[in-house]
Amino acid sequence: MRPTIETLTFDLVDDICLGLEGGALSLAQIPSCKANSIGPFFELNQIIDGANCGAIECSAYRDLVMAKANRRSSWFQDNQGFIQVESLLLDDLAWNDFSIRASRAAQAAGFSKDESWKLTAAIGEIYGNVVDHSERTETGYIVYATRGNIFEFVVADSGIGVLQSLQKNPAYSHIADSGTALEYALSEGVSRLQAPGHGFGFQPVFVGLANISTLVRFRSGDYGRELQRSGDGSIPATTKQLSTIGGLFCSVLCTSS
Fold it and tell me: What's the pTM?
């Protein structure tokens, strides 16, 4: 009989995936729980190759999951949306349509027009990295959802990952682990490209979302880097070794005032 846990969190995803990776846990032993947030659910979904193991109740996001599983080019509801990165590259109007839909969803969740466009700009910066660095653009996708006064989004791919990408630049070929690679990539101006002005582009994300971001989580290889707002308003960053995930996975959760 499966144990039952109320809510799927990133900490639970970490424990599940480390247990699966180390052989201490089987798919049949994953605890039953409910996905109330797209970040943890889609991270688990990506690590275990699209399976939800029958243990995760995800009715609120079932259509989003099906859109990804069926490789639909895009899918939208009033408060949710999904699009393949390739669709954005093939259709010049797709990004404008996506941005408008995501912005409207954010405003319905209580974000100002300015804040909503900062959110879509951040999504654009991150999806641009899928195009520039993943070498597997066809695996990239974007998903967003709102609940109450929360807007969250995920941008992910199953490409070469941050470490392998950075190592293509001789200046960073010495980097030996994905944790260090993430820390470098989240620094301004660091890139696989040797020409100046070609950073990963994550700094503008933090600047634009400084007053509304509650949790920002990046995963690549066997590490994660997380920035979580504290009660005093500071946003400390932590890097820790986790289970292995392919490509780059980014989850952002923002809260309106």
Answer: 0.91
